[in-house]
Structure formats: structure tokens, C-alpha cells
Amino acid sequence: MQKEFSQNDKNIAAYALNTFKPEDNILKEIRERAKKLDIPGIHVNDMDGKHLEILISMAKAEKIVEIGTLAGYSGICIARGMRNKGILHTIEIEQKHYDAAAQSFKNAKVDHLVKQHLGSAITVLAKLEKEAPFDAIFIDADKVSYPDYLTWAEKNIKIGGVIIADNTFAWGHINDNHFETLELEKQVKSIREFNHRIANNSQFIATILPTGEGLTVGVRVS
Asked: pTM value?
């Protein structure tokens, strides 16, 4: 019998959480503080945060770009994977989110590893090109722009570097044909384009990890 691609058994999910304990008090505090500040609760989920830390550690990444800081949850996970060495450039367009993330990085004692950038991602990314190539690039911002972010990432990731993107199951709509809103349709089709392109780029080997949100991972091999 072939096993299912993703894990929908709540008991097994609870086992994973209880065993690997992905969220400590520092990360939990970010969720709570962000809620009080009316920051959207769209941080990476706890297990994906742990996945990020491990992927960054495995890649031995030291020069990293994160597109979409929010309150700093994923940035802390990435910084922990850096093992106290290197620089994470993280980009955020909202001042309130930027300020919340600054506090988060300080609380987690990883602020010395992080350089925050305030502004539109496309504008900041153009300025960061002089720092390329990067060891890892994490994409978790506006979904309609995912193909544009991928275009930049493909040009600015080193051979052996890793591109990671969150929400690539498009909240369960990735294979839908009909959509409730035009905005959702645009988002889903952009994520589809992102997945299709990285899956079919001969310079990369790529997969989608069957987490709750879907985590696309591509390694540049040539």
C-alpha cells in the first residue's frame, strides 16, 4: 500500500510536535506579541520554523536573504541555523512589522546576525545584488510576486545554494480550477508558476516538502 504524500493524522502530528518541540518560549512570545500589535498571524508554523533552521544548518549558509520579515519568527529560525556565523538580510515593507521584528531579534539574542531592510522587496533586492551570490534565499512575502522573487533568486544564489519558499500549497488551493476571488486566483497562479519554474529549471534540483503549508526547496546544482 502506497502511503499518502502529506500527514493528515492529528495523532501523528501531535506526536511530532511533542517529540521535536519546535517552538520555545521566545518564538511563542512573538506570536503573542504580534497578536497584541494587530500584526497578521501569518508567521511560518512551528514545524516549518524548525525545518528552516535545519535546512539552513545543512546548507552551512552564512549569507542569506529573507523576503518578508513580519515579526521576526522565521528570521530567528534562520539565524539559529546559521550557528552564530554570517549575516541575514531580511526585508520588510511595513514599519510596524519591522519594529516588532527588531525587538524579536534582540530578545532572541540573534540581532548581531541580522541586517533589517525597510522597503519594497524589489527595490531592496536590487541594492543587495552587490552582495551576491547568496548561500540561501527564503521567500515568504506577497504571493503574486513569487515569480519575480524567483527570477532574482535564480540570478543571485550560488551553486550549492538553496532557495526556500513558504505557502507553496497555496493554502490548499494549489490544484483548484475555480476561485472565490480574483485576488486568490492571482495568488494561486503565481505560486503555481513559481513551483513549475523551479521544478523545471535544469540548474536546480527541487521538491515540495509536504508540510501543512507546503515548503518548496530548490538547490542550485549548475
From this structure: 0.95
